[in-house]
Every structure is written in C-alpha cells, then in structure tokens.
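HOLO CASE FILE
Compound: (2R)-2,3-dihydroxypropanoic acid
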Amino acid sequence: MSLNTADVARKKVLVFRELPPDQLARLRSRHEVTVANPRVPAQLPIFHAALADAEGLIGSSYPVDAALLARAPHLKVISSVSVGVDNYDLKALAARGVMLCHTPGVLTETTADTVFALIMASSRRLVELANLVREGRWTRNIGEELFGWDVHGKTLGILGFGRIGQALARRAALGFGMPVLYHNLQVVDVAKDLPALLGKVSAASFDEVLQRADIVAVVLPLSPQTRGLIGAREFALMKPGAIFINGARGAIVQEQALLQALDHGTLRAAGLDVFATEPLPLDSPLRTHPKVTALPHIGSATLETRHAMAELATSNLLYALAGQRPPAVFDFSAIS
Ligand code: DGY
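Model generated. Tokens follow.
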C-alpha cells in the first residue's frame, strides 16, 4: 500500500519526543510540525499551546491521560514510537475516538537480544567481573566465590509468549539447548507457527513456570491484569537459586518483594531493564544491589531498531492523517 497524500491538507502535528532528522523531514514535508518535549520544563508551555491545535501526536514515554486529551480538542491520532501502550489511557482514547498507532514487530529481535544479554550477564556475573578488571582488582585467578552459573542447559521460564517471548525461546532452545516453559493467556500453536521449536518448548501454568524454571523472564505487556503480578508469593514459588529477569515493564514487579527475595530469599540474581520509576531514582536499592544487573531501559535501543521504530511511527502518522489505514494500529478491542 503506498501513501497517497496528493490532496491532503497540511495539518498540525506535535512531536513530543526527538525524532531522527530524516523522519522529522518526512513529517515537515507534508504537515505543520511543532517539536516540544514536555519533560523539559522550558518546553512544557510550547507543548501545551501546540496541543490546542494538534490533529496528530508522535512520540513516546510520556503519559497521555484524559486531562491531556482535554487540552487537545482536534486530536485524531497518536503515533507512539513504542510497542508498549501502557503510557496511554486507552479507555479515554477509545471514548474520544482517537486512533492509537504503535510499533510492533520491528523491535522484536533486538528486545529479545537484550533479554538474553541480561540472562547471560546475570548468570555469568559479567558486569561484576568486568568491573573487577576495570578497577584493577584482577590480581590472581578468581576463586569459586566469583564463579558464575551455566546458562546452556538450564530451564528457561518465559512469562508472556508473544512476539518477544517467542524470539527469546528461539535463542534459548536453538542456541543454548535450554528447555523452555512458557505461560501465555492465548493458546500458541507451536506446531503450526513455530515448527522449529516443536518438542523444545512447552506451555505450562503460571505457577508451574515459576516453580520449574531455573531462570524466569518476564516479557508481558503492562496492563491492569499484569500490574504488580510478581510479588512475594511468586518469588517464594521460584526454585532456590533461580534467576529473575524483567525485560517488560517495571510495574509488573513489586520491587519491595523483589528486594526481599534477593536479600532474604534464595534468588541468585536479577537482571532488570525496566523499573517502576524511570529513570531509576538514585536512592533505589536496586541501583547498586550486588545481585542486580540494572540497565537503563534499553530493550530496543540500537541504532537500527530505534530508527526502524521512528520510521514506522512516522508512516503510521502520515497514513492516519491522509485518511488511510496505518500499518500498525493498536486494536482497542484487545483491552475489553
Ligand atoms: C517499547 O517499545 O515499548 C519499548 O519498551 C520502549 O519503550
């Protein structure tokens, strides 16, 4: 499908997070564009003023709630440069009839790479041991107290078996000989859709994944159903010495319960790309915890993937403003 903009009038577009110059130029060639980052105090008044006329918004990582929508009476479409839509009040958008677009697909492999990197880093203590070299503490061969834990052959439990969960399973099962258990609300037809994984991955109940996996990875979307899903009960179900990985959203995990499990439970380590509050507050105990490998929400943060996300998000917005169906519209029926 090609974009037909021949007779599309120029519309007011508000860009609320930096876009690469080529994508900004695409937008500017067709519409009147204001760039204002509401997280920068000096730009907030410009952002609010532009909302009053905007028909399209494009950006990410900023909460869009009913109060913000009330400032944008002409808004028709929001194009999020993210696959996750947890920053948007979906009910308020649906009630106003504002279309929401996002960027599924283009970040799947990169995000699965990040989650697998966290598995490797947490199990093999890569950051801790790299720091030992960097800080000049490698003065003799390391002893058993610094040995890591094998990844290959361990059972990986995946909570959420959508695109990213499946890409993670491929890495684990085909690359590292790991038996994979997964839990997903929708049934996945492995024989039909993932034939290479047949016999290597098995569906299990939520509790069974927690109880049987050596390494548990969360790759679920954040929703009212998953907020706070992993707490004291779930950590207590996990195997002694298990590793916990979160590559999804921080709010899925009760961080106090995670700290308890690290300090007083038997959790071996945690690898976290996401946190309840981001950027992670300086006084968060997770920032410097010796058993935690913490990353600054970099799931999709490679040059190639972030550009692909910006390109898809820009296309989504251009199609929507031209009255054509965008390539990736969020389906509100998924929330009812
Ligand atoms: C996404 O696309 O949802 C990533 O987590 C970036 O926010």
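CASE NOTES: Residues 251 and 276 are 5 Å apart (CA to CA). The mean pLDDT is 97.
CLOSED: yes
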